[in-house]
């Protein structure tokens, strides 16, 4: 049995990943606040938790406990996909609670769930992989999006650090902070409908849509899973699905 854990599974890229992993016959633990509604083909298994990753400690504890009760699977993969864009605009004008949520969901939850996953599966001898769904914006700063850029840049360095730690362990896990391309989801709607006076790059996001440059969530999920399947997955802890 292949075990995959997907956060942010209720819509967008996370839902498409969940559906495609189920089609591959995986047992998928899907985590989001909303309901994860996916077709479960024969051979696949969906376990859906409704949880708020803005309060990540109890979710990470629950994951650790749950994994500790699982038999060793054939492979184990954690896809930290949940992410939030706070209202686009300068950091100085941002709502403090909203900024906190963006960083908690976007970075803290990924760090804690990764810790729980690595700890609970440390005795497993099967291939273990972790993906941190990052963004080009973790590598290129964009005004009006400080919490998002900071969370994504944090993911890159988190992956570099954990890769060093796991390389020193027998059967260590492989980890990549992976930019998934530009995807036609709610997150893009939020960026291209933002207040132009507070978010100078709004028109660039409008342009992506009108020029047909957005991947569908299904195509983006296929590209991400293709990257996950690469033999050299983890050889570089910071990657992009658009890498050759
Ligand atoms: N779309 C793009 O162009 C693009 C580009 C680069 C990177 N990415 C990254 O790709 C990932 C997926 O993005 P997307 O475009 O699919 O976003 P999306 O359509 O906005 O979906 C976000 C997902 O995260 C979940 N989520 C948000 N807040 C949560 C919370 N407090 N607790 C638990 N789950 C929460 C949502 O579920 P609930 O609301 O049900 O909780 C939803 O399933 C994100 O990490 C994003 O940063 C996207």
Provide the fold topology.
Blueprint: E1 2-7, H1 12-23, E2 27-32, E3 45-50, H2 56-68, E4 75-80, H3 96-120, E5 128-133, H4 146-167, E6 174-179, H5 186-192, H6 202-210, H7 217-229, E7 238-240
Characterization of the model:
- The chain is α/β, with parallel strands linked by helices and 244 residues long.
- The chain has a single domain (2-178, 216-240), classed as NAD(P)-binding Rossmann-like Domain (Rossmann fold), CATH 3.40.50.720.
- Helices cover 41% and strands 16% of the residues.
- It has helices at 12-23, 56-68, 96-120, 146-167, 186-192, 202-210, 217-229; strands spanning 2-7, 27-32, 45-50, 75-80, 128-133, 174-179, 238-240.
- The chain has a seven-stranded parallel β-sheet with strand order 3-2-1-4-5-6-7, sandwiched between helices.
- Helix 3 (96-120) packs parallel to helix 4 (146-167).
- It is globular, with a radius of gyration of 17 Å.
- Residues 8-14, 32-34, 52-54, 81-84, 105, 133, 135, 180, 182-183, 185-188 line the site of NADP nicotinamide-adenine-dinucleotide phosphate (NAP).
In short:
With 244 residues, the chain is α/β, with parallel strands linked by helices.
Classified by CATH, the class is Alpha Beta
Mean pLDDT: 97
> Could you tell me the number of beta strands?
7
Please indicate the count of domains: 1
Q: Which CATH architecture would you pick?
A: 3-Layer(aba) Sandwich
Order of helices and strands: EHEEHEHEHEHHHE
General form: globular
Tell me the strand order in the biggest sheet: 3-2-1-4-5-6-7
- In terms of DSSP E residues, the strand content is 15-25%
Question: Which molecules are bound besides the chains?
Answer: NADP nicotinamide-adenine-dinucleotide phosphate
The CATH homologous superfamily is termed NAD(P)-binding Rossmann-like Domain
Radius of gyration: 17 Å
- Structural class, by secondary structure, is alpha/beta
Instruction: Measure the end-to-end span.
Output: 30 Å
Number of contiguous helices: 7
């Amino acid at each position: 049995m292949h075990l995959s854990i997907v956060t942010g599974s209720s819509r967008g890229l996370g839902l498409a990943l969940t559906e495609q992993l189920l089609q591959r016959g995986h047992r998928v633990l899907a985590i989001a606040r909303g309901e994860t509604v996916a077709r479960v083909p024969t051979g696949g298994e969906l376990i859906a938790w409704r949880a708020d990753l803005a309060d990540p400690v109890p979710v990470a504890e629950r994951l650790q406990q749950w994994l500790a009760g699982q038999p060793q699977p054939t492979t184990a993969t954690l896809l930290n996909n949940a992410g939030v864009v706070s209202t686009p605009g300068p950091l100085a004008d941002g709502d403090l609670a909203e900024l906190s949520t963006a960083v908690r969901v976007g970075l803290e939850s990924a760090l804690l769930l990764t810790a729980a996953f690595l700890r609970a599966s440390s005795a497993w001898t099967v291939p273990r992989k972790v993906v941190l769904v990052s963004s080009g914006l973790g590598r290129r700063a964009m005004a009006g999006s400080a919490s998002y850029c900071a969370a994504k840049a944090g993911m890159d360095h988190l992956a570099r650090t954990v890769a060093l730690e796991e390389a020193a362990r027998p059967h260590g896990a492989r980890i990549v902070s992976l930019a998934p391309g530009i995807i036609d989801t709610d997150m893009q709607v939020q960026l291209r409908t933002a207040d132009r006076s507070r978010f100078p790059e709004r028109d660039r996001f409008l342009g992506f849509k009108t020029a047909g440059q957005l991947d569908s969530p299904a195509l983006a999920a296929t590209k991400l899973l293709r990257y996950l399947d690469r033999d050299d997955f983890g050889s570089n802890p910071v990657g992009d699905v658009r890498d050759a």
